[in-house]
Amino acid sequence: MRILRNYVLKETAGPFFIALLAFVFILLIGNLIQASDKIITKGTNIIEILKFFACKIPYLLRYALPMSLLTAILLTFGRLSSDNEIIAMRASGFSLYRIIFPLIAIGLILSLLSVILNDKVIPKSHFASRKILTRIAVKTPLSVIEEGTFIRFKNHILFVDRVKKNKLKGIKVFQTQEGKIPRIVVAKEGKFLPVKDKNIIKLELRDGNISEPKEENSNIFYQLKFETYYIKLNLRKGQAKTIQKKPKDMTIAEAKEEIKNLQRFNIDPINLITEIHKRISLSFANLAFLLIGLPLAIKTKKSSKSAGFGLSLAIIISYYLFLAGGSALAVKHIVNPVVGAWLANIITISLGIYLIYKTVED
After folding, report:
1. 151 and 121 together in one domain
2. What is the model's pLDDT at position 91?
């Protein structure tokens, strides 16, 4: 059995490491293109560029590890099945469960290691890469605006879905008071307006509404719709020179602490709650991809690299579509964050277990 186990692991290891290098390289090139206008056109020295991409590698491994494992499984077991080696193993008295058990153990170990990677290593490296970009960028008060992040000012908390140059989409401004429900301004879009004072950010908000709690009854809100609304945000001391952490930059412990802080001001922290569950869920993509890949490789009996990559691409796209869809439903309070974040894994792992059972029974 040990000889068989070592043979299967050896046959899988080669394609796994080749696929891992290929996926990391492809993802790095994609990040290079995306960040080229920020780091290359500004005449940045090569050391800063290398540091930036070195910090990006742990984040890319989050996606490259499960994709590489899936590709290796499809290529290896597709070849073994095509060459009738799986049939020979089973004819020699080895059940399919015993053949694939070492790989399932590897998938589980990789998933557990990925929990540490996603919680401890990736947030720190992602935050370090943002620090490098900030050193390169021109330092102005506007540099504190980050999309998908709760940004604290003196008496306001700002959240913006998307930022493109001077344009903002999906804006929420919370006027905070300790222990009281905040006054909330919501706008579909807006833009920055120039001001002489560098410690003030002025926003022009369009197509939105203002919700203000009634003083004598905080459960009742006054609603006011507007076409255009102007608001000034006062920067805290030194805020323009500091970088606030995005959810992706926080460890799970830091995210939980931020959730408590937001709840103190009666601000919905659903984005952070979903991010925590999504991060853990992504760690188990290794196990999910392995379980779905094993029976598909054996059943399809395709040993060609093009067939293996094609099938892996279809699984990867389906998985991340379910992940994105489930997360979006969770953020909109349509489903529980746990269900939304784990939807892709629930579907993939359940289908994988069912297909393994059917393959063993055949």
Report:
1. no
2. 79
Residue 325 in contact with residue 345, Cβ under 8 Å? no
What residues make up the domain containing 206? 147-243
Res. 92 pLDDT band, cuts 50 70 90: confident
- The verdict on 288 and 349 lying in the same domain is yes
Q: What is the DSSP letter of 117?
A: I
**Pairing between β-strand 180-193 and β-strand 200-213 as defined by DSSP bridges:** antiparallel
- Pick from 228, 231, 182, 190: which is nearest to 209 by CA? 228
Give 355's contacts (C-beta < 8 A, 6+ positions apart): 292, 295, 296, 299
Torsion of CA 165, 166, 168, 174, to 10 degrees: 120
Of 99-103, 211-215, 225-229, where does mean pLDDT reach its minimum? 211-215
Over residues 252-267, the mean pLDDT reads 88
Whether the per-residue pLDDT at 294 is higher than 70: the answer is: yes
Q: Is residue 320 part of a domain?
A: yes
- Domain finish residue from 243, 258, 291: 243
Report, as an integer, the average pLDDT of 175-182. 72
76, 312 Cβ separation under 8 angstroms: no
DSSP string for 53-88: HHHHHHHHHHHHHHHHHHHHHHHHHHHHHHTTHHHH
Signed CA dihedral, 329, 323, 311, 354: sign only: negative
